[in-house]
Specification:
162 residues, 4 helices, two-stranded antiparallel sheet, disordered N terminus, mainly alpha
Length: 162
Amino acid sequence: MAHAAPAPGGMPQRTTAPRPGGRDTGAVRRLPDIFSERTHAVARWALPIVLGVVYGYWAAANTRYGGPITGWNVLFGVVTGVVFFAVFRALESYAVRRRREVHAVLWAAFTGIAVGFLYSLSGRGHGVWESTVLALAVAVPMFVVVFYRYYTHEDAAGRRIR
């Protein structure tokens, strides 16, 4: 099997010759990155901000139970959105330095806790157990998906391979 080393332009190149008389299985295909570094930098901040605003609005809407919008309700939504943003950014910078198993567990726990919290605010009399069951029902598949992604895109030391 051929191994790829990144070229000066960022695209991997073949380090072994193709098989004689057969398909060229040594080629490494990688989709080009169509966005610039600046776009990625903006997205690293824009995504958590947008998600924090949506999460805060959703939490505020859940706590007012269809009633009028109050100052406390708006304050709760803003604080919830800021906390969501802060935890998201902290997790983004902390989790990437962990092994892929821990990295996946952290994101799955964050997702499950966020969904369970919104569910507990929905005003339908959901208790701790119901919110916990829903959080686990969301966190377990999230762990599977995120772990698979990290397992297929990182080596055991956490370095990106694709």
